[in-house]
Design goal:
The protein has eleven helices and 14 strands. The strands form two sheets. It has an eight-stranded parallel barrel, surrounded by five helices. The chain is α/β, with parallel strands linked by helices. The longest helix is centred in the N-terminal third of the chain and has 24 residues. It is 35% helix and 24% strand.
């Protein structure tokens, strides 16, 4: 009887250990949830299909991390933490910066004193609301971005910022016994690497989230393509970004591939080649993938296409000369399989509310076996 009981106990422990190992080896799924507009609709979030939520955004003001709308942010933090009832292993991080709120990073991390103050303020917000880490979305070090303050010293100070943040998180960990995460969202293009020391910075980071989207600006092309559509070596793609960051010294096990839950639209000069490579005369709002799938794809005048080489879809309305680039179920599946094949850390997406019906998240979950 004792031998039988021991055998059951051993089998149970072994099964739990294997389950924990399998869970650790599964790719991460990081969803950015926007709170900058006010209250976030957390009722639509399928917590069991995510590993992390990055709450966007916290601003940088007077060299400190700063909550502009603390009343609604407080409610959002409480609701996001409530999702852990559905998924106890879910991690919630604050994401600082973004396109609009990256203006003051350069000043905030300019000196030893300012860096420490900034790191302390960021970790204090995270700790106050019982969250799990800090994500930095500086767009972009050493570059103008959205009329940012920027300077050559950003290159080294970017690394030193993470060093200081890691130190503050480790200090808090010693007090609480809880592990805290430090991640960053980075531009998925080569010039980002020219203004940073990613090989050095990565040692302080758990994940490096590649923003492998927003690629098309001057001419109509894919904005979130997995591979280059042509032989043009200057063109951007997710595959090219992965290779570049690995060459810069970031381990592939820390790289997270970005997926766009939204489309980018533009009006082009002519309708040859279904708008591809045509000069953009103006940009136009499109919306998220749920809207694209349920409304635009069924709208008269729009026709969808698939680029075999880029592994990316696009739409074109010849009468309006409107070109739209986006991710769909097919392209997301290709990206997820790429992550598995090349052993990346996982995927992240911007942003959750853009696909309210969960079309793309369902593909991510099924491909990763969640």
């Amino acid at each position: 009887m004792k031998q039988y009981t021991f055998a059951i106990l051993f089998f149970t422990l072994a099964t739990c250990a294997l389950a924990q190992k399998a869970s650790r080896n599964k790719p991460v799924v990081i969803g950015y949830v926007g709170g900058y507009r006010g209250l976030a609709d957390t009722s639509i979030i399928e917590a069991n299909k995510l590993t992390h939520i990055n709450y966007a955004f916290v601003d940088v003001k007077n060299n400190r991390a700063y909550l502009h709308n603390e009343k609604t942010d407080t409610i959002n933090f409480r609701n996001l933490n409530g999702l852990k009832l559905k998924n106890p292993s879910l991690k919630i991080l604050i994401s600082i910066g973004g396109w609009t709120w990256s203006k003051n990073f350069s000043d905030a991390v300019l000196t030893d004193t300012s860096r420490k103050a900034f790191a302390e303020s960021a970790v204090a917000i995270m700790a106050k609301y019982d969250l799990d880490g800090v994500d930095i979305d500086w767009e972009y070090p050493g570059m103008r971005g959205d009329s940012n303050v920027f300077r050559p010293e950003d290159k080294e100070n970017y690394t030193l910022m993470f060093k200081e943040l890691r130190a503050e998180l480790d200090t808090l960990q010693q007090a609480t016994g809880k592990k805290y995460l430090l991640t960053t969202a980075v531009g998925g293009f080569p010039s980002f690497l020219h203004h940073t020391e990613m090989g050095k910075a990565q040692q302080y980071l758990d994940y490096v989230n590649l923003m492998t989207y927003d690629y098309s600006w001057s001419k109509a092309s894919h904005h979130t393509n997995l591979y280059n559509a042509t032989k043009d070596s200057s063109a951007n793609s997710a595959d090219k970004a992965v290779a570049a960051f690995m060459e810069a010294g970031v381990p592939v096990s820390k790289l997270v591939m970005g997926i766009a839950f939204y489309g980018r639209g533009s009006i082009v000069e002519d309708d040859t080649k279904n708008g591809i490579d045509s000069k953009i005369t103006s940009h136009s709002h499109v919306g998220g993938y749920t809207y694209i799938k349920d409304s635009l794809l069924t709208q008269k005048g729009y026709r969808s296409y698939w680029d075999k080489r880029a592994k990316a879809p696009y739409m074109f309305n010849a009468s309006d000369k409107k070109f739209i680039s986006y991710d769909d179920e097919r392209s997301v599946r290709y990206k997820c399989k790429y992550v598995l094949r090349h052993k990346l850390a996982g995927v992240m997406f911007w942003e959750y509310a853009d696909d309210r019906k969960g079309y793309l998240l369902a593909v991510i979950a099924s491909t990763f076996g969640n």
